[in-house]
Amino acid sequence: MNIPENLKYTKDHEWIRVEGDTAYVGITDFAQGELGDIVFVEVETEGETLDKNETFGTIEAVKTVSDMFMPVSGEVVEFNSQLEDAPELINKDPYGEGWIIKITVTNASELGEMLDNKAYGEQLNA
Hints:
Layout: E1 8-9, E2 14-19, E3 22-27, H1 29-35, E4 38-42, E5 49-50, E6 55-61, E7 65-69, E8 74-79, H2 82-85, H3 89-92, E9 101-105, H4 117-125
Antiparallel strand pairs: 1-2, 2-3, 3-9, 4-6, 5-8, 6-7, 8-9
């Protein structure tokens, strides 16, 4: 299972990659594997500022629909429009082309509360 070192993780299997003033958010390799074939992604929060742990969208797989939660507080500035026609990008490349939203982080101190790759991996094996 792929758990990149350059990302931070939540207990709910979201990841975040901070690049300057913005950050990319998606779901982990473990999460996409548990969901199975992803068929639809819905994000209606673009342009909204949300608190940490608030729902920013839903992800639909063949057998289930799951909420996705903000890893930190921030404004949702962009939805990955590639996912409208190709939601399976999340299955193929969850940490790259399969990113879900781009945010502007409003409380950077919350990043320190997230799991690093080692702690996330330990949680999965617990």
